[in-house]
Amino acid sequence: GQSLEQPSEVTAVEGAIVQINCTYQTSGFYGLSWYQQHDGGAPTFLSYNALDGLEETGRFSSFLSRSDSYGYLLLQELQMKDSASYFCAVRGSARQLTFGSGTQLTVLP
Amino acid sequence: DSGVTQTPKHLITATGQRVTLRCSPRSGDLSVYWYQQSLDQGLQFLIQYYNGEERAKGNILERFSAQQFPDLHSELNLSSLELGDSALYFCASSSHGEDTEAFFGQGTRLTVV
Prior knowledge:
The complex is a heterodimer.
Chain A: E1 3-5, E2 9-13, E3 18-25, E4 32-37, E5 44-49, E6 53-57, E7 60-65, E8 70-75, E9 84-91, E10 97-99, E11 103-108
Parallel strand pairs in A: 2-11
Antiparallel strand pairs in A: 1-3, 3-8, 4-5, 4-9, 6-7, 7-8, 9-10, 9-11
Chain B: E1 5-7, E2 10-13, E3 19-24, E4 31-37, E5 44-50, E6 53-57, E7 64-68, E8 74-78, E9 87-94, E10 103-104, E11 108-112
Parallel strand pairs in B: 2-11
Antiparallel strand pairs in B: 1-3, 3-8, 4-5, 4-9, 5-6, 7-8, 9-10, 9-11
């Protein structure tokens, strides 16, 4: 099967940098994705890593280490609107897109 | 707007009843996924369809079933409803079955009383 672990909560102040970690176990691996979900809203795609290394998209970056089955999402210059839940997701040989339990990020003024 | 449409947005029903949730994927997307999200929980994968055929199955209860029609819209049927089935049900779509970027609808909030 597939399983992912990420911290349940992270708190940071406006303007700071925060890192949300994700470790995964999967049979086969097609990539690690990150999604953002504001309270009760639809999850939205943020980034995707299929190969080792860092992918940067504006204030957000995502990192993957396949040998360590580990990735992280880095959010820079935090803004109040970044307060949301962040999910990592992996697709393995079972083909289903499996999500972690989510990290609730709270940005304080 | 992701382009994925789910109806209805809200549904309140009694225990023991049956409901049908509907999803229209983005234009051109062949793959549809259904997820259940209970209060403060993660997204639990239920089932995936690709071009009308079941592609992958998660921890979907036997009381639940789904299908994808020739026009690619999908329906999730929930029967013999229990209080614990109250949750947000999301549909997502992607262009094919192997991509990792999925586009989510706004969800259907089901409340079982």
